[in-house]
Amino acid sequence: MAASTAEKGAGIGESSPIEVSEKTARDQKAAGYGLRHGVLSPLETLAQSVSGVCPTLTPFVTVPLVFSLAGNGTWLAYILATGGILLVAWCISRFARYSSSPGSLYSYAAMILPPWLGAVAAWSLLLAYVMGSASNIGGFYYFANVMLRNATGHGLSVLLLSAIVAAPPVWMVWRDVKVSARAMLAIEAVSTTVVIVVLALVLFRHGLHGDAKQLHLRGVTLGGFRQGLVFAVYSFVGFEAATALGSEARNPLKSIPRAVILTSVVGGLFFTICAYTEVVGFGMSGGDLGTSESPMHVLAGVGGVPVLGWFIDVGALVSLFAGILASITAAARVLLLMAHNGLAHGSLRATHARNETPTGATIATGVAAFLPVAFFAAKGTSGLDVYGWLGMLAVYGFVVSYGLVCFALPGYLRDHHGVENAATKTIPWIAFFAMVFAVVANLYPVPEGVYGKLPYIFLAYIGGALLLFAFRSRAKPAVQEES
């Protein structure tokens, strides 16, 4: 009964005695990580999750891809994807109400799962953030050169563009977490505002009547819709990035759960409106959304303000920059905690005495993100392929991490806090199987080309991580002591 009362109290915005005592213990431990404590406002914490999602890229890249599969059911795919992600967000937010650390989802999974599964969560999440950053670097040099060629007829060296966009985020993450958080906040606020203006103008031109083809799901096939739904889910990966700021967020037991839930809700609403409006706009223009290289340019023309297409292109580039910044910020903190817990080399525990940011972990994750992009760029691989390939590897890492956290939640709440009710018995399992579906549906039918090999690359990576875990002497995880 006491646990239930504490649970209800926390649900209306007040910290329970259990939460307060745990927060005190965590505050005492946070100093050992060497990170600046409690410096990020709730808005700055929210910026980390928003930038992790890179919302401006979805109408550019993902919506056209989903449309090529789901057709007039694209808007419905995003509604269902939002529902699935909200279930996962609920599970993550339940952990975040009781526990905060730099380790993000890894720390949650490690508190309840066997050590080897905790290691899987850690290495999966690290891969997700590093490959997410690398994917955004590839996307940046692709779209930057498209803009340069359209404007001047010439492009720049892809290696040079990769270095230009990779180096500043590493410096910013190392220099000051507040600087990087504020930069992400400003970038995403401006870029999404311009997209919303264009969408509003398209809907105004279309009129207040609905689009019958979309509302009646004309031409939608079950197989195409299923695959489109999976890709719609992938628009959300990174929404949990605020959980990596457990030591640096102000009042983390409140601000982090709110950031996770708010990013999921607002992101789902934004993506659904984008999907519906883009299909409407291309119906008015007579073009094919599924094959368009510059969908927002087309929509800006339909809305009667073609000049905004250029601003949205720039917005997409800076959104990619913000995504790199968010991913490296999160990856460095996950690697920092892994080093503290014996899953990575001890030198990566170092933090800068003045900046109070992870030094070795930031450099290591930045270099790890840049190297695969440099390799592909040197081979002349298209930036769009780099964006897709490395982004899909990141997705596997995210989905595995999400699934493990959902799997761990019922036991954590029951064993550590005495909380067990209908919601905790059902929602985590629905979310867990939704993540299983997201993986399986992407494997069958078997994707063509490189995409068909990526699952095996991911499995080989996890196998190597488990071998390292098996042969490495490990200290007792600090996250387990918190409970």
Task: Give the key terms.
483 residues, mainly alpha, Amino acid/polyamine transporter I, 19 helices, 76% helix, disordered N terminus
Question: What can you tell me about this protein's structure?
Answer:
Helix 7 packs antiparallel against helix 16 (383-417). With 483 residues, the protein is an all-alpha fold. Helices cover 76% and strands 0% of the residues. It has a single domain, classed as Amino acid/polyamine transporter I.
Give a summary of the structure in a few sentences.
By secondary structure, this protein is mostly helical. Helix content is 76%, strand content 0%.
CATH topology: Amino acid/polyamine transporter I
Beta-strand level of the residues, as a percent range? under 5%
Structural class from helices and strands? mainly alpha
Rg value: 22 Å
Count of individual domains: 1
**C-alpha termini separation:** 20 Å
CATH superfamily: Amino acid/polyamine transporter I
Q: What's the total number of strands?
A: 0
Basic shape: globular
Q: Give the integer mean of the pLDDT values.
A: 86
State the name of the first-level CATH class. Mainly Alpha
Q: Low-confidence stretches at least 5 residues in length (pLDDT < 50)? A: 1-32, 474-483
Estimate percent helicity. Answer: over 70%
CATH architecture: Up-down Bundle
Largest sheet: none
SSE diagram, text form:
Elements: H1 2-11, H2 17-33, H3 42-53, H4 57-70, H5 74-98, H6 104-110, H7 115-152, H8 158-175, H9 177-206, H10 212-215, H11 222-234, H12 252-285, H13 295-302, H14 307-340, H15 359-378, H16 383-417, H17 422-443, H18 450-471, H19 478-482
Helix pairs in contact: 3-9, 3-12, 3-14, 4-11, 4-12, 5-11, 5-12, 5-16, 5-17, 6-7, 6-16, 7-8, 7-14, 7-15, 7-16, 7-18, 8-14, 8-15, 9-12, 9-13, 9-14, 11-17, 12-13, 13-14, 14-15, 16-17, 16-18
